[in-house]
Every structure is written in C-alpha cells, then in structure tokens.
Amino acid sequence: MSKLKKVNHEIKCATQQIIVSRTNTEGNIIYCNPTFLEVNDFKNSEIIQQPHSIVRHPDMPKTIFRLIWTIIEQGLPIQAVIKNQTNLGKYYWTLITIKPQKDRDNKVISYVSYGKQAPDKVIKEIEILYKTLSKIEHEMDIDSAINFLETHLNEKNMTYAQYMKHLTKNREFRCLCDFIKLAVIR
Fold first, then answer.
1. Pfam families from the entry (predicted)?
2. In this structure, is residue 22 part of a structural domain?
3. pTM tops 0.90
4. CB–CB of 24/107 below 8 Å?
5. Which of 57, 76, 119, 133 has its CA 20 to 30 A from that of 7?
6. 127 falls within a domain
C-alpha cells in the first residue's frame, strides 16, 4: 500500500519516506531507491541515465540550481528545498541534502541526494522567494535573480547554508549514518 497522500495535485510524502538518488557528474541518474520511483511514478528502466532535471518542476527558479551546482562542483554538500514534478504531472516539495562522492584522489565522481517531505512552514516561506526569483529570471535574467538572492541573504545576514538551517531548524540528516538508521528502521 502506498504511503503517499495526494492533496489536489500535490503529493505529501510520509515522514518516514526517504527519497534517494545518485547522479554522475553530468547530472544523469545512475541510481534511485524504490521510494524515488514510487513518488515520481517512474520505473527504474525509464529513469536510469536520464538527467535528474526530468523531475524538475517548471516553477523552480534556475537560480537555485545554479547555486546548487556551484557548491557541489566544489566538492561541498548543500541542503535545499526543491519542488519536483512527477511523471504524471503531480508535484511535491522535498528537503534535500546533496553530497558529492569522491574517489581516493579526492575527485568528485558522483552526487548522492537524499530527501524527505519539506515541512509546510518551510514551503510557505520558500515558495514566496522562489516566485520572486522566477519572476526576475523571466523579466530580466538569471544573473539579476542571483543578485537578488545575494541581497536577500545579506539583508538576513546569512549565507545560503545558514538560511536553509534557519528555515528547516536543522532538520537535515547529520550524516549518512542517520539516513541509514532511518532506512533500516523502516
């Protein structure tokens, strides 16, 4: 039995559901867990080697993905709130952590993303920011949207990472061990 609740066209994941995917350095999916498949309405054969952007919702500002790529290409982890779209056109909000995976020479070889349902309070606040960023991208360009985001964060006297921690009250997994504990307990 599915643990998903459908609210209008939005999917709300159960709190214990963890969505996991792994991409190569070009952003193509090389692994996803059964929850990712269930939530996104894909079969494994349909999604492997596809760009992760296949689940990107059109409402998501490109600014956020540019920021994400800038951070992870440096070999650093990042947390973000993302609105994704399923294969059937429904959507869901996820609080994700993306961590670069490195080889013995410390070279990034892939990225692992794991996420869970974003809290409603977080969605309410981030949705306003994302609508503003998307509007700026549409009316001007992505560089203007990035400048707006930087100004927005400076006014809060926060980095993006600090802003995410503030929004989510540090609800991310402290380490992959926490994810494994939750996944095994399920």
1. PAS_3
2. yes
3. no
4. no
5. 133
6. no
Tokens 């995410």 map to which residue?
A: 164
Q: Is residue 42 domain-resident?
A: yes
Instruction: Please give the chain's pLDDT, 186 residues, in tens.
Output: 455 554 558 888 877 889 999 999 999 999 999 999 999 999 999 999 999 999 999 999 999 999 999 999 999 999 999 999 999 999 999 999 999 999 999 999 999 999 999 999 999 999 999 999 999 999 999 999 999 999 999 999 999 989 999 988 755 444 444 444 444 333
**Measured CA angle at 107 (ends 105, 112), to 5 deg:** 125
Question: How far is residue 127's CA from residue 118's CA, in Å, rounded to a whole number?
Answer: 12
The residues facing 19 across adjacent strands are 115
Please, which residues have CB within 8 angstroms of residue 105's CB and are 6 or more apart in sequence?
Answer: none
| Domain span at 68 | 5-118+169-185
Q: Is residue 67 part of a domain?
A: yes
